[in-house]
Amino acid sequence: MSRNFTTQIQSPKLKDSSLLRQSAFINNEWVKAKSGQTFSVIDPATENEIGKVPEMNVEDTKEAIMIASKAFNEWANLTPKNRHDYLLKLHSQILENQNDLASILTLENGKIYAEALNEIRYGASFVEWFAQESRRVYGDIIPSSLKNHKFVVEKQPIGVVGIITPWNFPNAMITRKVSAALAAGCTVVIKPGAETPYSALAFAELAIRAGFPKGVINVVTTDKYVKEIGLEICTNPVVKKISFTGSTAVGKLLMEQCSSTLKKVSLELGGNAPFIVFDDADIDSAVEGAINCKFRSSGQTCISPNRIYVQSSIYAEFASRLADKVSGFKLGNGFDTNTTHGPLINQNAIKKVTRHVEDAVAKGAEILVGGTKHTGNFFYPTVLTGMNKEMVITSEETFGPVAALYKFETESEVINLANDSNSGLAGYFYSKDIGRCWRVADALEVGMVAVNTAIIGTCEAPFGGIKESGIGREGSKYGIEEFINIKYINFGGLQKNSTNHFKL
């Protein structure tokens, strides 16, 4: 791995500079914080300031919630076709501006531009998907057990939704949640990650261009008052639903706070994904899969493999091939076309990855490649062998570019090892044995399984976990259900009169 790289690559100028907004967004207006305070947003690659956005507090949040509540009835009473049309216009706006959106994402998040562009397209796919799903929210007629009664089930939007998103996928996390909520007929108040507010604000700008009515989408930005705003969103009785992606610890806190008003919650929380390579696997495919899902976004994804289990007979070969590939990575600014991996988000991330690597080495692990930080927010992509269950990585999500390899002997052993976790988001394995593929896929205690592939997330498939990895699903036909109330209506007293018409 080359240790010669530069972070001082000039970011490309936006074709449309008005997409980089320095204000929050309430009632289709660009607003400042009531206090007048702002906070800085930092480019993690250069550690330079990108700009400042409003430091909003509880009072600003209450206003956003009130505005969303006022907009709710009008938005909910539109036809599904109306909402479909708005979302398709938004989808077109995203694709028309995808290059600028990707530049904004790379600037504030640090991931390489190619990955940022893929995220924009991935995010757009959810807007298109839920535009279509808005027209397929079907109710039911239930066969009645009572004479002269009709049992009807209809589905109605739940109301104002609080959307709290992280920094690692600042576009896709918003589009996946918000487009489902909007399609269902809900209005939203978005609180983006403090590290990456600009993607959320650009999304709001495009919503204006798509013609969305006032108050349907609102964005509240904050760094200093994250806890206070989170508490307000969770306890305000006007908000009927919370959709959150982030750490398990914060998810538990939000769920506890929501209990005061019995809000509906969707939580997509931390992972500790197992990645299993059996001795009958295609090793080249398994290595490629491990690279794609372990080192994407420099390992800063919730579905990134945290524990890589390799059967003993191929352990050395797999480790060697993986280390060889990783040694060819190039760190640098995400706008540099030669860069393969960008920075971690901040120094807290660097400290955590460093702690995990040092703990593993102290307990017997060997570093095949990487293992140290560089300058600033950069950490060299790392491959560790000789891992064991006593190491911190085994039980704690790293969220960084560290591939930790564990050796196993039998299928039953590795299933027990893989399931020995409080997390249950994603799992991966490689095998050519069709019987084993079915057995292991069924046995893994996770919400999502990838067999002989590194691909998990698509708009058509349900995304979410079990155990302490969360509640609910995003994407797919199931995703819109998270923003809907089911109402049962019993029409009684139905009798025929002499003219053969029904009456109440």
From TrEMBL:
Its EC number is 1.2.1.16. SUPFAM superfamilies: ALDH-like (SSF53720). It catalyses: succinate semialdehyde + NADP(+) + H2O = succinate + NADPH + 2 H(+); succinate semialdehyde + NAD(+) + H2O = succinate + NADH + 2 H(+). Keywords: Oxidoreductase. GO terms for molecular function: succinate-semialdehyde dehydrogenase (NAD+) activity. The active site is at residue 268. Pathway: Amino-acid degradation; 4-aminobutanoate degradation. Residues 30-489 form the Aldehyde dehydrogenase domain. It comes from the Eukaryota. One of its GO terms (cellular component) is cytoplasm. One of its GO terms (biological process) is gamma-aminobutyric acid catabolic process. PANTHER family: SUCCINATE-SEMIALDEHYDE DEHYDROGENASE, MITOCHONDRIAL. Belongs to the aldehyde dehydrogenase family. This is Succinate-semialdehyde dehydrogenase.
